[in-house]
Write a structure and sequence with these properties.
The complex is a heterotrimer, with one copy of chain A (288 residues) and two copies of chain B (192 residues). Chain A has helices spanning 4-13, 43-52, 56-66, 76-92, 99-116, 132-153, 183-200, 212-225, 240-256; strands at 228-230, 260-264, 271-275, 285-287. In chain A, helix 3 crosses helix 6 and helix 4 packs antiparallel against helix 5 (99-116). Chain A contains nine helices and four strands; from the N terminus they run H-H-H-H-H-H-H-H-E-H-E-E-E. Chains in contact: A-B, A-C, B-C.
Chain lengths: 288, 192, 192
């Protein structure tokens, strides 16, 4: 399939002569062919042939090759005539003709007419050769066509080679690393939550240097480790006044929420803190 | 015709490229269909292949549904590295729950649900605790004694912050947040 | 620790179980991460493996995106027969479109059509992208902002090439300046 000539076109022609023109000259009864005995082409054959060409550039390149012509001195008159014969025949046979073929026909006709017109006096007439653009396109197309053919000749998967693989149970050892979260993402989530809260209750959220709520967590955490803590242990003097205030507020808040119990054996003695679930010692006064 | 060596290569290649284990019959009616082969001879070829791969990283084994190549058992843990890629991202629900815990800690699940307006899945709480970012610091003395959740030191370390108040969203009250966004939208649409 | 033999087995097993070709870096940072290895030593191991498999039904090859094991070239027809339902054929139109993209990438659909002289069917572009051979790498800053297409490593892997220049016809890059090209053509044709 990589090259249409051997598979389809030659089967149609059946002639030994290489230089012969394409056997399409019986169109409209005009005897344009050297070999009238080969005149008849079954429509199915032409249809197959048409399919074998990937487009008008492919057909044009084929016509040039048939003439053993060099692309660089594109014989525009001959090529245009042959191309038109093809297109006419395709139309006559009512084959579905892609619009691209007609576009090319128009382009060829235009170049032809410009060549036939008397040349305007010009210094660099070669620059103005109306064929130049078509030649450039034909050359580019030839590269692409050849590239496609060479690509098809390369070893291809499922046709020429298969990838080898082995089964494994190693996946069962695999641990999936948890996803990464950025502070920005967390911040965004917090904004959404804060907005929800804001809608529910008109709280004014103020920035605070130390979170009382976070401190409450730390105190509860400590209490879950040892049943009873000395009140003073909950203060870290290195945090300064603000830290002491936050710790004190946290203890009061926890007490208010009923999450801890403050006990004192007698006035001015040490204050102890325990989690609410710990049963308070009888005889000890509960500070409220 | 095909010689012994090519025959072995063909069987080897067929097993390596099959998507599932291959039976003797599949080989005989498949790749070997054009060569005069029988089961005993094929068995011999497979025995040889098993011997060839004895010391290799993959081995030819017969499992219930046929023959296949599989990796050497002891390589499992080392190979597991190949699949230890990162999991997909966390859901917004998980991040919101985490943010809620960071902000309102110590907090019960019920309190989180009251704010988010949806139930917090057990899976989310499990994931956050497994990650070491959230832990139970006590129980609220109300009926049912619900657990009180708080963020951990590991949580602060992960986000390289000293305290939850360093989460940028806490620095700005949400009202100003929305105003700013509206303005931004306006100026952006003005551009177009 | 791990000895030379186990190291080779590990690399071998990793390549056989990977879902795509594996690069040296992937091996070094993946399965070999816990062992002191470097590129030159790993190259040696791979060379040894290539040697080990020289006469086998599958061989270790280096393709554009890394190392993989694949079946011996001459076994293709016999294997294609066994797994026949998987052997696709590609039309000249598809191959030309693919060659055009490989040659002139990044390229717009309009540019492909200009050279091929025929409109490029949407089906072909879809197939090429579904196969992972071609992808959109940007948009050309002209009216309509058409997509710019380029070929991928998967394309190189499928056609067993390391680079587009391995296809002789496409090895010569197209000249960017058409005017210069026209001049050159004129002088060249004058030569003949």
């Amino acid at each position: 399939m990589d090259n249409p000539e051997p598979t389809t076109v030659e089967a149609v022609e059946q002639g030994p002569s290489e230089q012969q023109s394409l056997p399409l000259g019986f169109v409209r009864g005009e005897p344009v062919l050297e070999r009238p005995e080969d005149l008849y082409i079954p429509p199915e054959a032409l249809e197959i042939m048409l399919e074998a060409f990937s487009g008008p550039m492919d057909l044009l390149l084929y016509l040039i090759r048939r003439q053993k012509m060099d692309i660089l001195d594109l014989p525009i008159l001959q090529i245009t005539r042959q191309y038109m014969e093809y297109v006419e025949l395709m139309r006559e046979l009512k084959l579905e003709l892609a619009a691209d073929y007609l576009v090319m026909a128009a382009m060829l006709a235009e170049i032809k007419s410009r060549l036939l017109l008397p040349k305007a006096p010009s210094e660099d007439e070669e620059e103005l050769d109306p064929r130049a653009e078509l030649i450039r396109r034909l050359q580019a197309y030839e590269v692409v066509r050849e590239g496609a053919r060479q690509l098809d000749d390369q070893p291809q998967q499922y046709r020429d080679y298969f990838v080898a693989s082995a089964a494994t149970d190693a996946r069962t050892w695999a641990e999936q690393a948890p996803p990464d979260v950025s502070l920005a993402e967390l911040s965004l989530a917090l904004s959404r939550v804060m907005q929800l809260v804001n809608v529910q209750a008109h709280h004014q959220i103020k920035r605070e240097a130390l979170s009382t709520r976070e401190r409450m967590s730390r105190i509860l955490e400590k209490l879950s480790q040892c049943a009873r803590l000395d009140f003073v242990e909950l203060f870290d003097l290195s945090e300064g006044k603000a830290g002491v205030v936050v710790s004190f507020l946290a203890i009061l808040e926890l007490n208010k929420e009923g999450l801890l119990v403050l006990t004192q054996a007698e006035a001015y003695s040490g204050i102890y803190i325990s989690a609410k679930s710990e049963v308070s010692q009888p005889g000890e006064a509960t500070l409220r | 015709m095909i010689n012994e060596k090519q025959l072995k290569q063909l069987v080897e290649a067929a097993i390596f490229t099959a998507e599932a284990p291959v039976t003797l019959d599949q080989l005989l009616t498949g790749v070997l269909a054009n060569f005069s082969m029988n089961k005993p001879r094929l068995r011999q070829v497979l025995d040889q292949l098993q011997e060839d791969y004895k010391e290799r990283g993959v081995q030819l084994v017969e499992v219930a549904s046929g023959f296949r190549f599989q990796t050497r058992a002891e390589l499992g843990p080392a190979l597991a590295h190949m699949w230890s890629e990162r999991a997909p991202r966390y859901s917004p629900a998980l991040l919101e729950t985490l943010a809620m815990i960071a902000w309102r800690q110590p907090v019960t699940r019920g309190e989180i649900e009251a704010v988010r307006g949806v139930s917090v899945s057990t899976q989310i709480m499990k994931t956050l605790q497994e990650r070491g970012w959230v832990k139970v610091v006590g129980h609220k003395e109300v009926p049912g004694r619900p657990a009180l959740y708080a963020t951990t030191k590991a949580f602060l370390d992960y986000f390289s912050i000293q305290s939850v108040v360093d989460i940028p969203a806490l620095a700005e009250p949400p009202e100003s947040d929305t105003r700013e966004r509206d303005n931004k939208e306006v100026s952006e649409s003005g551009h177009e």
